[in-house]
Inverse folding.
């Protein structure tokens, strides 16, 4: 009876079917001795109630009687980003509704971790993998590994060779951002702009950075007099802290008083905004980001913020689009090579139309 009670304790430490825990996590949550927890975990693995993931992680493995569930891996770009966390929740919700066993691993926005996680999914013989990682230079390696293992892949946001793509229409999203910046400048600065600052993400490759090119085109189609001397670019890592520091350094050199900023994503947009604030120059900028995820909602809700908008990608809806693709692919049905999300410019004036309740990051 005591062993049965402890087994139930261990099963109850898992918050949902996708959560992967280390032995140390199970011990901490269950309050059991390490040796006891390890012994019971092995028994539960043998009974198919717990599944081993990789070398040292565990997840719930209970299966409905008489029904095989598809096992799908999701390699999340990084839990650091609100956008990725929203995509994860959406995928989990839609996967559960479709009776799919979704296994989530965090790529931590690091190429070596992404490659390691790919190897885990291959060892675990996933039916399909949803891959989300930003390093264009390893995309072909990841695709080749899955292709050798005969595992189909859906690539989120960053295209990978010979995979199905789901995500942004980057050029169109960039145009939306650039046109919004230009219209704002015409309204607030009578079109007088000293500088257009582009916050790029070189490691992601050409396709994601086409949103920056689109932003540039969207600005100059209205502010046609802008020339190369007005356009500056910063090579960011896509993270808040890096964007903050690079923008600070730029502002030490620049004396411009009317600066439009097109950022590759919301963390970069927020980092740039903080740099202008730290320099006491917030009134010198107007910034547009991409994703419109929860981390920028507080700024977008403020009509006086110089983060004047963010192009919406609606990560909370990704599961509704991706999981039907998963079901078609594992069933051998044809799917389009690329599916693009619909974009909208989210501002202080329409935020609550799309997101009625304030959300945390």
């Amino acid at each position: 009876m005591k062993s049965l009670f402890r087994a139930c304790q261990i099963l109850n430490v898992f918050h949902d079917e996708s959560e992967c825990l280390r032995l140390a996590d199970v011990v901490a949550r269950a309050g059991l001795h390490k040796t006891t927890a390890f012994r019971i975990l092995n028994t539960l693995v043998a009974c198919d109630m717990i599944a081993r993931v990789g070398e040292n992680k565990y997840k719930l493995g209970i299966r409905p009687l008489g029904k095989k569930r598809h096992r799908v891996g999701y390699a999340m770009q990084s839990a650091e980003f609100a956008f990725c966390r929203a995509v994860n929740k959406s995928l989990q919700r839609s996967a559960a509704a479709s009776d799919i066993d979704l296994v989530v691993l965090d790529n931590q926005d690091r190429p070596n971790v992404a490659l390691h996680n790919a190897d885990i999914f291959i060892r675990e013989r996933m039916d399909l993998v949803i891959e989300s990682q930003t390093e264009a230079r390893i995309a072909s390696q990841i695709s080749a590994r899955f292709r050798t293992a005969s595992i189909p892949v859906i690539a989120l946001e960053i295209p990978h060779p010979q995979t199905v793509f789901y995500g942004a229409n980057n050029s169109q999203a960039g145009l939306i951002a650039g046109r919004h910046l230009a219209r704002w400048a015409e309204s607030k600065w009578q079109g007088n702009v000293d500088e257009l600052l582009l916050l790029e993400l070189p490691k992601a490759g050409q396709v994601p950075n086409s949103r920056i090119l689109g932003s540039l085109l969207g600005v100059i189609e209205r502010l046609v007099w802008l020339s190369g001397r007005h356009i500056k670019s910063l090579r960011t890592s896509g993270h808040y802290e890096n964007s903050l520091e690079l923008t600070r350094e730029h502002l030490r050199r620049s004396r411009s008083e009317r600066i439009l900023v097109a950022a590759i994503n919301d963390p970069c947009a927020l980092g740039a905004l903080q740099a202008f604030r730290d320099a006491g120059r917030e009134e010198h900028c107007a910034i547009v980001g991409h994703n419109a995820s929860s981390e920028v909602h507080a700024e977008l809700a403020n009509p006086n913020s110089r983060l004047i908008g963010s192009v919406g990608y609606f990560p909370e809806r990704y599961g509704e689009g991706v999981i039907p693709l998963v079901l078609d692919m594992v069933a051998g049905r044809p799917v389009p090579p690329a599916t693009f999300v619909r974009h909208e410019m989210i501002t202080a004036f329409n935020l609550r139309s799309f997101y009625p309740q304030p959300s945390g990051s």
Q: What stands out?
A: The chain has a mean pLDDT of 92. The first strand starts at residue 21 and ends at 22.
